[in-house]
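step 3/5: co-fold with zinc ion
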Amino acid sequence: MPWMTIAAYCPRCAAPRADRAIPLRCPACGLVLFCNAAVGVGAFIADASGRVLFTVRAKDPGKGLLGLPGGFVDAGESAEDALRREVREEIGGTLTAIRYLCSSPNRYLYAGVDYDVLDVFFAATLAPGELQTDADEIAGMRWLHPAEVDPAQIAFPSMRAAWQVYLSGLP
Ligand SMILES: [Zn+2]
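step 4/5: write tokens
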């Protein structure tokens, strides 16, 4: 259920909501509030031999499944800057090349609230150096050749769709 449908009161004047429609339109104070998709970013990071870096997700949604380095875009941040920041935070790496791949809608259920997300995917490479995972976010890292990747182990449908786009662009 989209998050705004769970709000029982106007967030400005606290009038009870007669309906849970989106956008929120408060008849008491006139507030109109939209509920657009959040933006997520993720990267298929390849090494020189073509292996791709997947993360093992430490938390739900998708706990134990394959994920990608990435996360949510902050207000005022570009998708590329968000990707660089998340890669630095999650795996301690510095991206050297970022190329747009595709985007795909996603639903992200967290703490009982269902968020609409637009996931934006990139292909990227890493600067040389040791990686260090953030154990709160990531249970492990796996460098996998494309043939070793079982799509059923990829955490989100949007990520599975992007993986197919990534594979179709390989030489
Ligand atoms: Zn109101």
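step 5/5: annotate
The mean pLDDT is 93.
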